Amino acid sequence: MERFTINSLMPQVIDQLDPKQFALPNKSTTHALVYLLHQILAALDSGHNFIRLFFADFRKGFDLVDHSVIINELENLNVHPVLTRWIKAFLTNRQQCVKVDCHKSSWKTTNGGLPQGTCLGPLLFAILVNPLLKDWNGRLKFVDDTTAMEVVPRCSPSLLPLVVQEISNFSSARGMELNPKKCKEMIINFLQYRIPCNQSMFINSQCVERVHSFKILGVYLSDDLTWNAHVDHILKKANSRLFALRLLKKAGLGHTDLITIYCSVIRSVLEYASPVWAALPDYLSSHLESVQKRALKIIFPDISYYEALQSSKIKTLECRRDELCRRFINSTRKIACNNNPVHNIIRPSRSLGEHDYFLRRPNNSATVRTFTERFDNFITIKYM
Fold it and tell me: Given this model, what pLDDT does residue 262 score?
């Protein structure tokens, strides 16, 4: 029934939802991160700006949702009254209890909140925060994750504290709360003559902490735009799973099954959102490759790494990242809607018929002029 409701609700609201809300069809966390990094790198490329970021965290995001606010938002989006009434019935008069071992509390009716683990919950939350920061260009949303970005020209004051206050007011008006301890600020500044940004941001009189690295949508973003922190994180996560692979090998599991487990449980960690951070220096790329070498050594202990690659019919992680980047660009170009900001960044390839001459190897994309190697190596430029 939920899936039927989503199929009926989505066509009515999709064109009215914030295009920078990435928890929607034809979008993903990778799209959100690619869009954010492209905006950051493009702004820094001129050499006259620095970036200020605010990462919002809503306290008990799904639990403090006022049902009446969601119903009002559905009515503002002109959702069919019958569907609105069904969603109201779905949300209200829900009961819950607490169970500890064999003991269970009495049932209580909830007076708010969205049921987590449902198909409808994320879409309803996206509708709830749809008006948030609509007039602020540097925004990024993924369900309850909201990021505000400001491009600050040299010697100019920052307006981001006002934006943070707007987010706080928006939350309070809808019965939600920002968590000052989990909200963070980051400054990315490569200006030759750096001017310190002393404008602190406050939430309920509490100063927002300024950090050098922050995990956003599963990827660690650092203020020096290197990927050391993220690579360290996924290396620890992947290496911890190699132990399970050893146990399965000792238990007598076959090569085919071990390779399947490696690809689904370990390699997936090493490749999550890789189009965002694919432009790695050689030493970080080697660190990642070493995990796959160890995994294949467990599966094929008597042959070399490259022989194991051939036997398992898998490629090096570096080759895989290149393929994933190309696949990401091609799939994004094929999106049949303009509601994805990344689709608007990636220009479609030109055909030969668009010019009057033929080249042996034509350049199928419009040239984008860049001034920094950092931007030139990013996926939206390198794979154009």
Answer: 97
Q: What is the DSSP code string of 27-77?
A: --HHHHHHHHHHHHHHHHHTSSEEEEEEEE-BTTTTTT--HHHHHHHHHHT
Opening angle at CA 195, ends 192 and 197, nearest 5? 135
Per-residue pLDDT at 74: 94
pLDDT of residue 315: 97
Question: Which residues in the chain land under pLDDT 50?
Answer: 350-365
Model-wide pTM > 0.70: yes
Cα–Cα distance for residue pair 325/380, rounded to 1 Å = 9
Q: Which residues contact residue 128 at a Cβ distance below 8 angstroms, ignoring those fewer than 6 apart?
A: 65, 69, 70, 73, 174
Q: What is the pLDDT of residue 367?
A: 62
Spatial distance between the Cα atoms of 121 and 11, rounded to a whole number of angstroms: 17
How many residues are there in the chain?
384
Q: Are 347 and 366 in contact (CB under 8 A)?
A: yes
Q: Is 313 exposed, middle or buried (CB count within 10 Å of its CB: 0-12, 13-18, 19+)?
A: exposed
Alpha carbon of residue 213 to chain centroid: 15
Extract the tokens encoding 133: 């920061």
Q: Which of 155, 220, 165, 215 is nearest to 189 (CA)?
A: 155
In degrees, to the nearest 5, what angle opens at C-alpha 18 toward C-alphas 57 and 178? 15
Q: What is d(CA 296, CA 291) in angstroms, rounded to the nearest whole number?
A: 9
Given this model, what pLDDT does residue 113 score? 78
